[in-house]
Specification:
Elements: E1 9-16, H1 25-34, E2 42-45, H2 49-57, H3 59-62, E3 66-68, H4 75-86, E4 92-95, E5 110-113, H5 120-127, E6 136-143, H6 148-158, E7 162-165, H7 170-186, H8 190-193, H9 197-203, H10 209-220, H11 223-226, E8 242-248, H12 258-264, E9 270-275, E10 278-284, H13 288-293
Parallel strand pairs: 1-6, 1-7, 2-4, 2-5, 3-4, 5-6
Antiparallel strand pairs: 8-10, 9-10
Helix pairs in contact: 5-6
Length: 298
């Protein structure tokens, strides 16, 4: 007796990018990511390593914490990133077909294709990262007019029913963000807010309860916070979207070479140079936070 194959519950969705000069593919991706459920994760596929890095470093996407994983980084970095993603310490991971096969990501809700792959078979493998073992999943493909012939080939090859969708509007994204804040407010444990009840009573004067609550939600999630962080310029090299870091190693025994340094840090370093106090390098802004948490940089 053979067990029946597990039925996958996967939605295949395609979003055509509007032909507007001020809406790039990167900003389209930003809209999609901001519109996902607050507790969800997404694996983003790019067609090349160069494109994956460009996505993670782009100002429109940078503030969302998208981390790149590709074949040109040391295996130790790849393992760290993948384990962090599995452990839900990273929400958005952008990669190439390096992760399209043989990688199990239980419970992954979303797979997003920055653009259609060059081979319809690659779509099948990428889409297979979600909706596994009966879990629900969704595959979202961004495309424009020039991508349509490949989208047709993918639909013919996969025999899947693709839903046509549009990008969420700014108003929808704002409502989505405010709803997430409201949920977070209601989840605060009582031992954190009981001591503030007296202040709350003073604020909530007659007929003002709704107004005060609306002000609180607005304060916690302003329009400025809804937008990705602005790009920075490295003080070391002047390159946009990078931050200069100093990795202390006074006698250069911890990291005797650039290769040794790269193998020990959890993210790629650019323009590495030996200095008297250690090593100076550029780090993509999207990687700075977890580089600091790693303890390598003080």
């Amino acid at each position: 007796y053979r067990q029946p194959a597990t039925v996958r519950s996967t939605i295949h969705r395609m979003i055509r990018l509007p032909e507007r000069a001020n809406l790039t593919r990167y900003r389209g991706l930003c809209h999609v990511l901001r519109g996902l459920a607050a507790d969800s994760q997404a694996l983003i596929f790019a067609n090349t390593t160069k494109e994956a890095l460009a996505i993670a470093r782009h100002p429109a996407v940078e503030g969302l914490g998208v981390k790149p994983l590709h074949s040109e980084m040391p295996q130790s970095q790849r393992d760290w990133l993948l384990n962090s993603f599995r452990g839900r310490r990273i929400r958005f991971l952008v990669t190439t077909d390096l992760l399209s096969r043989g990688i199990d990501l239980p419970g992954l809700q979303y797979v997003i294709l920055f653009r259609p792959p060059e081979d319809p078979t690659a779509y099948v493998h990428r889409a297979g990262r979600t909706g596994r073992a009966g879990d629900e999943g969704e595959v979202i493909t961004l495309y424009d007019k020039s991508d349509w012939p490949m989208m047709q080939k993918i639909m013919e090859t996969t025999k899947q029913n693709f839903e046509n969708s549009s990008l969420p509007t700014e108003e929808e994204l704002r409502s989505h963000a405010y709803a997430a804040v409201a949920t977070e407010i209601l989840s605060v444990p009582s031992n954190s807010w009981k001591c503030l009840e007296a202040i709350a009573r003073d604020l909530v004067t007659e007929g003002k309860a709704r107004e005060v609550l609306a002000r609180v939600v607005s304060l916690l999630n302003t329009d400025a916070q809804l937008q990705p962080k602005k790009s920075k310029v490295s003080l070391y090299s002047g390159v946009p979207d990078f931050t200069a870091v100093l990795i202390s190693d006074f006698d250069h025994t911890l990291y005797p070479s650039v290769e040794a340094l790269q193998s020990r840090v959890p993210c790629p370093l650019e323009r590495v140079r030996k200095a008297e106090a250690g090593w100076v390098a550029d780090v993509a802004n999207s990687n700075v936070d977890y580089l600091m948490k790693s303890g390598v940089v003080e």
